[in-house]
Amino acid sequence: MELEIDITRKDFLEFNKTMVTKKVIRIFMLFFFMVSVLLESFNEENILLEDYLYSIFMSYFPALILFPLIYVIMNWFTKRTPKKEGAILGKKKIIIDNDGILEISLESEFFTKWNGINNIIKNKKYIYLLLDKHMGYIIPIRNFINIDQKNDFLNIVYSNTNLKKKL
User: Fold this and answer.
1) Which end of the chain has the least Cβ crowding within 10 Å, N or C?
2) Nearest-angstrom CA–CA distance, 105 and 153
3) Are 104 and 153 members of one domain?
4) What CATH number has the domain bearing residue 117?
């Protein structure tokens, strides 16, 4: 199967947001939980209401300060993009066969065996075939001719990898 795709800066930024946002939110939630538990563990059995309110305030205060800071840093990281018509952005041809996936662009060819695909993430606009935590093929759904071509593509990918379809 062959598929012509065009990866734009917007596609790349959406990929970064999907990958980075997931990780940052998990780290933030873990940090928030750890701070809350740590602060609550210092409380004694006879807790006054004022002390309890202070403890809750001190649990949420770091989150209120750190969340905007993390958001600004995350936006800065996700807005960095590669050059236009390079190895990542631009027009590409994706060829899939029994051996794996071949991506051909103006500047490069990149081949991946099926066992190199570790995860598949799908949403309304994209299919991401992940090779690592933050590296993978970006397949915009708009580049499929119709829904049948998209489903055929996914069936080929799932049948050649050890990954299970997520409903």
Assistant:
1) C
2) 19
3) yes
4) 2.30.29
